[in-house]
TrEMBL record, chain A:
Pfam families: DctM. GO terms for cellular component: plasma membrane. One of its GO terms (molecular function) is transmembrane transporter activity. This is TRAP transporter, DctM subunit. InterPro entries: DctM, TRAP_DctM. It is a multi-pass membrane protein. Residues 6-414 form the TRAP C4-dicarboxylate transport system permease DctM subunit domain. It is found in: Cell inner membrane. The lineage of its organism: Bacteria, Bacillati, Bacillota, Bacilli, Bacillales. The keyword Cell inner membrane applies. It comes from Tenuibacillus multivorans.
Automatic annotation (TrEMBL), chain C:
GO terms for biological process: C4-dicarboxylate transport. This is TRAP-type C4-dicarboxylate transport system, small permease component. It is found in: Cell inner membrane. It comes from Tenuibacillus multivorans. It holds the Pfam family DctQ. Keywords: Cell inner membrane, Cell membrane, Membrane, Transmembrane, Transmembrane helix, Transport. Belongs to the TRAP transporter small permease family. The chain crosses the membrane at residues 12-31, 46-63, 84-106, 126-145. Residues 24-151 form the Tripartite ATP-independent periplasmic transporters DctQ component domain.
Length: 428, 328, 160
């Protein structure tokens, strides 16, 4: 039966049935075939899968990002990033990476960063003599730090699945996220020197200070979100709601770039984007029920203990597995389906759930730039007007950079854990 | 006994062994393996499988079928689970308000009192109410407990005045919340998973629960959780339920075995819980938590009118009286 | 048909966005009251239930707009009648799935209609569960309207 279902999954996916529905159909047919699980479990699980307060953070963080883009706050951050690193050789590329890191501190997802930053920087990079490949590659690859640097929707979902602390996961994401950004900047510098990319003019000090001043209200957002969660003042969901209101207020009254009449469209865009991944989550919950009937977690544990029995190999297998899953599935349903399967084994090998979460989230972040289903890659390719194949080739070097940092973090977790454990030992 | 065994062997030979055999999915919502619920359900499994010679297969799920009680109740009703464990607060969601009686503060004086009630007339009547009001969806086969709940907070309680203005993380059920308000405390809702941090970082001043639960979560090691006052305000009741309609479909023999297994599970759960309560109290003391006792009389007096009023609203005044009489 | 579908979509968008707003406001009330030390117990449940509604309504609208992610490798490769045939197969698959979900959804609503909300026992859980058959029902309507269009393409292909 299991093989038939897997075959059906591949077939339906191949002929073009939307993936969320493929998940739901396989769940329904599988459950109809098992006497012990009534069919009504499918709609029941779909609803119960959403019946969780932490999930409310998903649309809220998407809303924050949409407000930032519509309120032109992203543009302000781009100007600031340019003033900070534009004078280095390959300045526009460096600014692209730096602004993604700033954006990551506000946004819980990556797509909004690709869209907001890409729309401005891809054309301007092309104009300034960068090849298309570099523009598209950097834009999409650097926006993957959006889910590694807190806040992060996938981290919230992972915490919900494993009862790990959201605050702890958020904190350990900071160093790896910044490392990915810095590594990309070093790489960009090397190719910039080789290809003699342009530097931007140095920004005068008083202009820089003025820009910094104007950007401060926007840069306070990450402090509100992360600070609120770490101190226990807000939960993750609440911090997202506060960030929403704060962003709304600064873009309406400080930057004055947003009007009330813009709101319906922003709200609809938020509903549209979030309901796509959340519907997939609902369907995945139903499929998860089927998988827990087969007790895949237990079987995985038995398998790994009998045949693998090496922590490092297990970690490598997890990374390869989620790299594969991430090529065709969103991070959220991927985690709903497979985190419960690997968790018992991870615990048996003595892997800290927070560490596991960091590995899984970073791996699935790579999925954002791998075809066929890599949202950031698709978006950047569209903006840069380049084929998916060419875009993917362009993104490969950056993907390798992320993977190197990921392996480094996977085997030397102290790099990510040292500072957070000093900051707030209670969380660990 | 013996007759069944030969029967089984015979039917096994001609391939009919499976026809009468049933599989029972038993589930509770606690994921920690060291839990009285798990001990209770494992006992259920052991007895049911042994007595039936393996004709009844029991699969125990510790949190894997759902960590929310509401989901377990839904699954029991749909037939996606056969034995589940639920607290009164979640039972009321199914529209059976009477069960709320067992959540009243200071309803029971001691475990002896509680045991006497749930194993006596009141226990039977409540089982009947649950069965009738749920249209036989739920059949109660045993009363378990999740321990006796005490106050723990940022300062010890010497008298009721000490509760004035303190925020306390407590259940959101009506009577419980009303009671704490009357003591002067401020009931606050906070997810269980967030409570450790909440106590550590002053989001709430105090909370209330039974030793095995809050000590396992290290709440007693937080700034706002290290003073434990043994208020003993709630000897908690948990319902061990099966799906009545499916139960009726079992053979008489299977029904007997299930009831027997349920009875054995009750004993196992109680023993496990009582042992854990002592064990975790000792851990709390060893870890440096400060425990004090308190004169419970004023608290009991405060609870009585609330109990009367709530019982009348629920139409269970007679049951309340019977419970009070059982204390004497 | 087209006008009806457009009106339906508009209504559904409005409902989805309205619930989105409700849960944002509710969360803000929760934060405020908690820090003012006022006990408000209904916020979490109201927020979560509104969230469920907004997701299911949004997901249905996305069916109409064909925004749910799918692999268009095969559909793009095929042309004309073959493409229309494949689209028809996809439409029918979605309709079949949603008919089942609608059917089971109605049964679930019946089963749990009288269950209470925890924080507000006067409210019925049926108001939440009914979002499922509404979602599935509207998804059927949207997919049917797609089906009609794809059949028209197929027919016009035959005429040529
Ligand atoms: Na982020
Ligand atoms: Na991908």
């Amino acid at each position: 039966m299991g093989f038939i279902l897997v075959g059906l999954f591949i077939l339906l996916m191949f002929i073009g049935v939307p993936i969320a529905f493929v998940i739901g159909i396989v769940a329904l047919l599988g459950i109809m075939n098992i006497e012990y699980i009534p069919e009504l479990t499918v709609p029941m699980k779909m609803l119960n899968g959403l019946n969780s307060f932490v999930l409310l953070a998903v649309p809220l963080f998407i809303l924050v990002a949409n407000l930032m883009n519509s309120g032109k706050i992203s543009e302000k951050l781009i100007e600031l990033a340019l003033a900070m690193v534009g004078w280095i050789r390959g300045g526009l590329a460096h600014a692209n990476i730096l602004v993604s890191m700033m954006f990551a501190g506000v946004s819980g997802a990556s797509q909004a960063d690709t869209a907001g930053v890409g729309k401005i920087l891809i054309p301007s990079m092309k104009k300034n003599g960068y090849d298309k490949e570099t523009a598209v590659g950097i834009t999409s690859a650097s926006s993957t730090v959006g889910v590694v640097i807190p806040p992060s929707i996938p981290m919230i979902i992972f915490a919900g699945l494993t009862n790990a602390s959201v605050g702890a996961l958020f904190l350990v994401g900071i160093v790896p996220g910044v490392l990915v950004g810095l590594a990309m900047m070093i790489f960009v510098y090397i190719i910039a020197v080789k290809r003699n990319y342009r530097k931007q003019d140095r920004t005068e000090l008083n202009k820089f200070l003025k820009l910094l001043g104007e950007s401060i209200p926007a840069l306070i957002t990450p402090i509100i979100i992360i600070g609120g969660i770490i101190t226990g003042f807000f939960t993750a969901t609440e911090s997202a709601a506060v960030a929403t209101v704060y962003t709304l207020l600064i873009s309406m009254f400080f930057y004055k770039t947003l009007k009330i009449r813009d709101l319906p469209k922003i709200l609809f865009d938020t509903l549209a984007l979030s309901s796509l991944s959340l519907f997939a989550l609902a369907a995945a919950s139903a499929l998860g029920e089927l998988m827990s009937f087969y007790q895949l977690g237990l079987r995985a544990q038995e398998f790994f203990v009998d045949y693998v029995d090496a922590k490092w190999l297990f970690i490598i297998i997890i990374i390869l597995f989620f790299l594969f899953i991430g090529t065709f599935m969103d991070a959220i349903p991927a985690m709903i389906l497979f985190v419960p399967v690997i968790l018992p084994t991870a615990l048996q090998f003595g892997i800290d759930p927070i560490h596991l979460g960091l590995i899984v989230v970073m791996t699935l972040a790579v999925g954002l730039i791998t075809p066929p289903y890599g949202l950031c890659l698709l978006l950047a390719a569209k903006i840069g007007d380049m084929s998916i194949e060419r875009s993917f080739k362009a993104v490969i070097p950056y993907m390798i950079i992320i993977l190197v940092v990921l392996l480094f973090i996977a085997f030397f977790p102290d790099v990510a854990f040292y500072v957070p454990e000093l900051l707030n030992p209670d969380l660990f | 006994g013996g007759e069944e065994e030969t029967n089984n062997e015979g039917s096994g030979d001609n391939g009919e062994g499976g026809s009468d055999s049933i599989k029972i999915v038993a589930a509770h919502n606690q994921t920690s393996p060291e839990n009285p619920y798990q001990d209770g359900l494992l006992k259920f499994k052991e007895v049911a499988e042994e007595e039936s010679n393996g004709n009844i297969e029991v699969e125990v799920h510790a949190g894997t079928l759902g960590t929310e009680e509401s989901e377990l109740v839904e699954k029991l009703k749909l037939g996606a689970a056969d034995v589940v464990l639920v607290s009164p607060g979640f039972m009321t969601q199914t529209g059976i308000d009477e069960v709320n009686l067992f959540a009243f503060p200071y309803l029971f004086e001691s475990y002896d009192h509680w045991e006497k009630v749930v194993q006596g007339e009141v226990g039977e009547e409540m089982a009947q109410i649950i069965n009738e009001k749920s249209n036989n969806d739920f059949k109660l086969v045993g009363y378990w407990t999740a321990g006796v709940r005490h106050y723990y907070g940022k300062k010890p309680i010497e008298s009721m005045d000490d509760l004035e203005g303190m925020t306390i993380r407590t259940q959101t059920s009506g009577v419980v919340s009303d009671y704490w308000k009357q003591t002067g405390a401020i009931p606050t809702s906070l997810a269980w998973g967030e409570l450790y941090q909440g106590l550590q970082q002053d989001v709430v001043d105090s909370a209330e629960n039974a030793y095995p639960y809050f000590v396992q979560q290290n709440h007693h090691q937080t700034d706002n959780g290290k003073y434990i006052t043994e208020t003993g305000h709630d000897y908690t009741t948990r319902f061990l339920l099966v799906n009545g309609n499916e139960f009726d479909n079992y053979t008489e023999e299977q029904q007997e075995i299930i009831l027997k297994a349920a009875e054995a599970s009750v004993q196992a759960e109680w023993e496990s819980l009582y042992a854990q309560e002592e064990e975790y109290k000792q851990i709390a003391i060893d870890d440096g938590a400060e425990i004090n006792e308190i004169d419970r009389q004023p608290f009991i007096e405060l609870a009585k009118p609330l109990q009367d009023q709530a019982a009348e609203e629920l139409g269970v005044t007679d049951l309340l009286e019977k419970i009070r009489q059982a204390a004497e | 048909m087209n006008r009806f579908v457009r009106l339906l979509e508009k209504t559904q968008i409005f409902v989805g966005v309205a619930f989105l707003c409700v849960f944002i406001v509710t969360i803000l009330i929760q934060i405020t009251t908690r820090h003012l030390e006022i006990a408000v117990i209904w916020t979490e449940e109201v927020a979560t239930h509104s969230f469920i509604w907004s997701v299911f309504m949004g997901a249905a609208v996305m069916v109409n707009r064909r925004e749910h992610f799918s692999f268009d490798y095969l559909t793009k490769k095929l042309k004309g009648r073959k493409q229309a045939t494949l689209n028809i197969i996809i439409d029918i698959t979605l309709i079949a799935f949603n008919v089942l979900i609608f059917n089971y959804g109605i049964k679930v609503v019946e089963q749990f209609w009288n269950y209470n909300w925890v924080s507000m026992p006067d409210l019925k859980m049926g108001y939440v569960w009914i979002a499922i058959p509404i979602m599935a029902g509207t998804m059927i309507i949207y997919s049917l309207s797609h089906l009609v269009k794809h059949v028209q393409v197929l027919r016009s292909g035959e005429v040529q």
